[in-house]
Batch of 2 targets.
Target 1
Amino acid sequence: MKDIEKLIEKYAVAGPRYTSYPTALSFSESADKERLAELAASRDAEASLYVHIPFCRSLCWFCGCTSSVCTDAAVADPYLGLLDAELALWRDSGLGKRKLKQLHFGGGTPNFLTPEQIMRLGGIIEKYFSIDKSDCEFSCEMDPRTLTAEKVKAFADIGVNRASIGVQDTNPETQKAINRVQPQSMNLEAAEWLRSNGITNINVDLIYGLPLQTAQTFKKTLSDTLDIGPDRIALFGYAHVPWAKPSQKLLEKNAIPAPEEKVRIFLEAKEFFEGAGYEYIGLDHFAKPGDPLIKARQNGSLHRNFQGYSTRAGLDTMGIGLTSISETRTSYRQNYKLMEEYSASVLGGKLPIERGIILNGDDIIRRGIIMDVMCLLKVSYCQYGVDFKTYFADAIKGLGEMEKDGLVEMRGDGFEVTSLGRLFLRNIAMLFDGRLSQGGQRYSKTV
Ligand code: SF4
């Protein structure tokens, strides 16, 4: 443990999570929006759809998502109308009726919607896309505090087949300190409703580094997680960025774990989940053996996007709704973050793209390498169409240092990430990032 702690001290720097490359900090309002729209419509193929539901019943003080707090579900009615109108604009701009291989509802809280609104959303999506329900990973983030059996049934009826239950931490003291009181009985009830409605693929999302957490208190959360019986677990490190998310200041009323304790919590959790039979995918993800994520890593189809790891590489991702990010092979674009601007754009008949980036040749090469590090845990120099050792001479020097630390193993024609190196994937990927200076210290710590 001591050696790992030393390495963590050495490598804990500010850096991206690489859900995209270039990261969102490189997106620009001056990007050519017409070209971005053309690139979105240029491939009539299979696709992945992300739908953002930007409402929550109350604010969790750690939260970094784009969401507004409301108690009246009726606020979502006009928003669903805007999603419908946005998709109509895309259809009119030439986007054909794509076949969805992946669909994700995120937020905010998708289960802020009533059962009727969930059914309406399902109908809107079916108007513009075709979905083969037997071959589409259709996932939804769920908050047990506002979930009901009727909502779960509605999600199942429109085809949801995977749910991510937001648990975070089951310790009542930590829950009070983050303004998210959620007894374990609610988590168990949510899992039961999901399974009895046929949604048997269950993820649990946890967060370490929250106030009043210690490796000792977190043990209960770990065993509570096993009681829920998820097939995937995401254990996210809390990123304290109060300059960007002022509500996080409220967490400072209670002790936030020191970096060494945070590391201890993560390492003990990793050991616990591995001991319980889960495989560490890397970064913050664990999955049961035989899970599609593990198979996707083995057959090279693991991908990373704004929702984290995904099993479907090579798909364009289309994000609709407030603040959603979309991805094509050569571009990223993001919708407006403010409701007034998003709504004015859609109602005015204009695609609601606020910013984006069209990748240049160098970005495309670096993106390929960074995604291979993050997803496949190996890089073969011959695959990127450049004289790798010359093009990335500085990165190779950095890899030499990481090899001494046991994070990578160099081969003549590439390198592989070791099992220790999986803890430092972001640092390894950073060696190939040509735009780090554009994000500076605004990123969270890598470990
Ligand atoms: S963590 Fe989820 S439920 Fe809590 S405020 Fe953020 S989006 Fe809403």
Target 2
Amino acid sequence: MKQNIYDLIEKDKEFQDIIKPLIANETVQKMKNFRQHYETTCFDHCYTVSYYCYLICKKYNLDYKSAARAGMLHDLFLYDWRKRQEGRKGLHAFTHGKTACDNASALFSLNEKEKDMIINHMWPVTTKFPKSFEGFILTFVDKYCAMSETFEILQSRLFMKKAFRYAYLFLSLIIIKF
Ligand SMILES: [Fe+2]
Ligand SMILES: [Fe+2]
């Protein structure tokens, strides 16, 4: 299932043309070194979020280029958010939108909509509303992807648990029989 979506993304030429200058960047590539949700890297999370934002915004004649770009850069914070960082003030959930926007602005020329989308992507955890439809779409897509990345791994762990339980039962029955 996961591989299917990546295959789809790779084959979408228009999306690739929009996203290529961003993902070619060395700093953006560094997101591959940080885990976002369970086994999903920050890069893969942003890449998927970016693609869904692009698809939805394109379907509804919205600014899909800004949506794809902001989606790709919305979590460009480059630290392990599970660990306490020296000198980092405030909780990650409330501060990383601004951090990502500062980091992205230092690397690329972002328009005002893209900046606002990145800063306010944590709404409603943060109270400030995004100023655009594209921004709202990013907030929902981000949460959807976060949940599916989490449930995917929990589901596979549950499956493994069940598989081990049945294997244990099976082995016990064999041992009892002999
Ligand atoms: Fe985020
Ligand atoms: Fe995110």
